[in-house]
Amino acid sequence: MAGLNVTEIVELAALLIAVGALAGFLAGVFGIGGGAILVPVFYECFRIAGVPLEARMPLCIGTSLAIIIPTSIRSFRAHMARGAVDMEILRKWWWPILIGVIIGSVTARYAPERLFKIVFVAVAWSAAARLLLARDGWKLGDDLPDGPLMKIYGFFVGLLSTLMGIGGGLFSNLLMTFYGRSIHQAVATSSALAVLISIPGAIGYIYAGWPAAARFPDVAALQLPFAVGYVSLIGALLVMPTSLLVAPLGVKAAHAMSKRALEMAFGIYLFIVGSRFVIALI
Questions:
Q1: How far is residue 280's CA from residue 270's CA, in Å, rounded to a whole number?
Q2: Residue 140 pLDDT
Q3: CA 90 – CA 255 distance, rounded (Å)
Q4: Residue percentage of the chain with pLDDT more than 70
Q5: In 3D, which of 14, 42, 52, 9 has the Cα closest to residue 222?
Q6: Which of 51, 53, 119, 132 lies at 20 to 30 Å from 184 by C-alpha?
């Protein structure tokens, strides 16, 4: 593939397997799905595999969303067993999130990527600052709102998560903690939201990327059996097993940590992820 020898292909495969373990652990700890880790790694792997720039980022995002499906389901079940998931939020958000995911999937190829990177950095760094500085006074309210505003929040969680290839945990964690919810409950509920976002999101990217194989017939990484639409089957198969195995360990780690330790860990993580997008913008 793309002129790579056997040793280079084995090295890429080993990298993806290791990254799958890291993404699964983070999915369990933070309820984030792991997409913020997977997308940049996939970007480099698909670059090496000869995927053209036009199709590379959508392929990264679609593959990330496909992998988040089983990982988030396992993470959600583990959090649910501990009684930490707020089902009322799921009932309020499921349909606006679904609408956001559908619109995000359709417009992914045309969205101004730079704008969404700026939004991502702004959200990630504001959340990191609040968590790291322990400024509990940084609140939008004492509890999540009812009515149209709650639906608007859900819509943007689905839209932005789909355009960025993440499970939604970054935005839902931020919203819930800004409205006074505990970090443990925010992480647990976010794992459920990742299920709502990743399934229709992955289907949307398969549909959006279906013509890619015909447009780039010489790119093996975009052809069956290596990929279907903008979902890399070989990438998903390498990452999913270790991601699934490690996700429950992340859940145990999250519930074993104190509130402050979990806030610090999540804040550091958000700062690192935001920094990566700053570097890309520069």
A1: 16
A2: 67
A3: 21
A4: 85
A5: 52
A6: 119
